[in-house]
Design goal:
With 261 residues, the protein is an alpha/beta fold. It contains nine helices and seven strands. It binds NADP nicotinamide-adenine-dinucleotide phosphate. This is 3-oxoacyl-(Acyl-carrier protein) reductase.
């Protein structure tokens, strides 16, 4: 594990799932972490409690990213806590697959994903990118979260929604890497099927499909993604920017091909 002592990290959407694992991993490596929740204050507080047990330091902030003005206030508030930021991870994503949002129409789901995943990632990245560059932080990094099948595409409502939104994040991130170089590195982690809230309740058919689509023949875990994010913020990846790193156990093209034949 890299030594991130003295570094300050913000992980959006870290009240559960992948974000929670990222926050815990960065804290275990010594970073102070701003833990963010959209609504789930209790979830964020429990992550902070775990960080405290690890001997680390953290602070919880709640902000609904559907609110445009609140996004900029969130960056300012996160920056204020310890007088700056070194690493910013845009992980927050609207859950349109479980809970009440499952009942929304396709357009409503798309709008929600657009606001929370795409617009918020773009606006938060631009604002923090400007601050990181102007303050000349040493070795600053932004990591955004995409999806491994966004370029290839996937059939159905979920494929159409997630390919559109996650491809937008990836395209934006590649451009931002050019804007912010050489001061700030910007990379994307593109997860495959990761067992979080949707994966826990997925049907047997979907579960088998998730496993078959990975060459390593298993679901991914939040810890798999956290390890990749940590690599991309740490000095171990100092010569990498504008890169998209799929973390999916290797996409099983032969299986995908059979399914569409
Ligand atoms: N799981 C997968 O297979 C997979 C695959 C590819 C990409 N991803 C991406 O990975 C990221 C994390 O996914 P996950 O599976 O860990 O999901 P998750 O457990 O549902 O976590 C989503 C996080 O986003 C936050 N969030 C949701 N709506 C928000 C809003 N309106 N404003 C601010 N924050 C909001 C949630 O906060 P609250 O609950 O506190 O509101 C939560 O902390 C997402 O961007 C997702 O699209 C996941």
């Amino acid at each position: 594990m890299p030594d991130l002592t003295g570094k300050i990290a913000v992980v959006t959407g870290s009240s559960s799932g992948i974000g929670r694992a990222i926050a815990l991993r960065l804290a275990a490596s010594g970073a102070k972490v701003v833990v963010h929740a959209g609504r789930n204050q209790a979830g964020a507080d429990s992550v902070c409690d775990e960080i405290l047990r690890l001997g680390g330091e953290s602070q919880a902030l709640v902000c609904d990213f559907r609110d445009r003005d609140a996004r900029l206030r969130f960056v300012a508030a996160a920056w204020e806590i310890w007088g700056g930021v070194d690493y910013w991870v845009n992980n927050a994503g609207a859950d349109v697959l479980t809970g009440a949002n499952r009942e929304l129409t396709f357009s409503e789901k798309l709008q929600l994903l657009w606001q929370v995943d795409v617009e918020a990632t773009i606006e938060l990245s631009r604002e923090i990118g400007r601050r990181l560059r102007d303050s000349q932080r040493d070795a600053a990094a932004i990591v955004n979260i995409g999806w491994d099948q966004s370029e290839r595409g996937m059939e159905g409502d979920s494929g159409e929604m997630f390919a559109t939104t996650k491809s937008a994040i990836t395209a934006f991130s590649r451009s931002l890497a050019r804007t912010l170089a050489p001061q700030v590195r910007v990379n994307v982690v593109a997860p495959g099927w990761i067992k979080t809230s949707w994966g826990e309740t997925a049907s047997e058919i979907w579960s088998q499909r998730a496993i078959a689509e990975s060459l390593l023949q298993r679901w991914g875990t939040p810890a798999d993604i956290a390890a990749a994010v940590e690599f991309l913020v740490s000095p171990d990846s100092a010569f990498i920017t504008g890169h998209v790193l799929p973390v999916n156990g290797g996409l099983n093209h032969a299986h995908l091909q059979q399914r569409t034949e």
